[in-house]
Each structure stands twice: as structure tokens, then as C-alpha cells.
């Protein structure tokens, strides 16, 4: 498994030496796509539709659960990042040496992006973004493929589980009602013109 992991890492990471013009886009994807994810999550939440609210909550709970499982997995297996363990790595971003298994970045993106896709199955863009982020973490030299694949698998399973479980939890509906009542007082919805005319 270790030899296959290293071979797959080299196959992806060495592309940065062959195609240096792609290094900058992959650095951006690896480091800054998280800003896009955060902005889109806020946008979805503040559309104030029930579907989007459940979608964001599904993603958030999936991420929390996946992170917990990921941390437990990290207790069972330890490996440093490729830039620490291997020579001649295309290492492109600042990163502290620690356990890179599984990839937290991949967990974050797969938890959110798979959840977003589950609520909008015609839009595969989110899945493509998650895959690109996972590949980018290998490209910039901070994760092995096994770190990324494990993170993606954990997050995907958690997103699917939350997609089916969360809407069936009465406490979630009650908490959302409480939040929305407070939100309505702080940021009232714009009333439709028809309502204002009456």
C-alpha cells in the first residue's frame, strides 16, 4: 500500500515539474477555494429558503462528524506530509509538519460539496470542486493520495448519512424555528408589494 501511495503521489506531484504554469492555479485551489466555499455557504443560508437551510445544516453536521471520525482515524495511523518524508517534492505552500492522515481540507470540501450536490443533483460542479481540491493538496506536496481518498470517503459517507437523518430529527426543526424567529426580528424579510398594498 505504501509503495502504491508514493507512486500515485509522484505521478500527480511530479506534474508540477513538467507543467510549472499549472502550479499557480493549483496553489490557488489548494489554499483559497475555502473562501469561495465559505461565501457560497453564507449565500445559501441567507436565501432563507427551507431547502437551502437544511442543505447548509446537513453540510455543517456532516463536516463535524467527519472531522471527529478523521481525528480518530489519525490516532490509528500516522504519517508525515510528503514534503517531510520524501525528497524532490514539488512543495508549493507553507505547512507545518504533522500528521497528514487524513486530509482535513478534503474532509471539509467533500462534506460540504457532497451535501450541496445531494440537494441539487443536476449540479455536479460542487463534486468537481471537491475533487480538484483533493488533487491540489497532492499537487502542492502536502498530502498523499491515501490521505485524500480516506478524507473524501469519510466525508462522503457522513454527508450521505446526514442527508437522510437530519431532516427527520424534530429537534433540528425546532432549533431552526427558534433561530428563524430571532432572525426575523433582527433582519425582517422584505414584504411583498402585494402585502404592502393591502
From TrEMBL:
GO terms for molecular function: undecaprenyl-diphosphatase activity. This is Undecaprenyl-diphosphatase. Coiled coil: none annotated. The keyword Transmembrane helix applies. The chain crosses the membrane at residues 26-47, 54-73, 101-119, 124-142, 148-166. One of its GO terms (cellular component) is plasma membrane. Residues 59-163 form the Phosphatidic acid phosphatase type 2/haloperoxidase domain. Keywords: Membrane, Transmembrane, Transmembrane helix. Gene3D superfamilies: Phosphatidic acid phosphatase type 2/haloperoxidase. InterPro entries: PAP2/HPO (IPR000326), PAP2/HPO_sf (IPR036938), UPP_Pase (IPR033879). The keyword Transmembrane helix applies.
Amino acid at each position: 500500500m505504501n509503495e502504491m501511495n508514493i507512486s500515485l503521489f509522484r505521478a500527480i506531484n511530479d506534474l508540477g515539474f513538467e507543467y510549472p504554469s499549472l502550479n499557480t492555479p493549483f496553489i490557488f485551489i489548494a489554499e483559497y477555494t475555502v473562501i469561495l466555499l465559505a461565501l457560497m455557504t453564507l449565500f445559501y443560508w441567507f436565501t432563507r429558503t427551507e431547502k437551502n437551510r437544511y442543505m447548509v445544516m446537513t453540510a455543517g453536521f456532516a463536516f463535524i462528524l467527519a472531522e471527529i471520525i478523521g481525528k480518530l482515524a489519525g490516532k490509528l495511523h500516522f504519517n508525515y506530509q510528503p514534503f517531510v518524508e520524501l525528497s524532490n517534492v514539488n512543495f508549493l505552500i507553507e505547512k507545518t509538519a504533522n500528521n497528514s492522515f487524513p486530509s482535513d481540507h478534503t474532509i471539509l470540501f467533500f462534506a460540504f460539496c457532497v451535501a450541496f450536490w445531494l440537494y441539487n443533483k443536476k449540479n455536479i460542479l460542487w463534486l468537481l470542486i471537491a475533487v480538484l481540491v483533493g488533487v491540489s493538496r497532492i499537487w502542492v506536496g502536502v498530502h498523499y493520495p491515501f490521505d485524500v481518498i480516506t478524507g473524501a470517503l469519510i466525508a462522503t459517507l457522513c454527508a450521505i448519512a446526514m442527508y437522510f437523518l437530519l431532516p427527520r430529527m424534530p429537534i433540528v426543526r425546532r432549533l431552526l424555528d427558534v433561530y428563524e424567529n430571532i432572525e426575523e426580528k433582527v433582519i425582517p424579510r422584505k414584504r411583498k408589494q402585494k402585502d404592502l398594498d393591502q
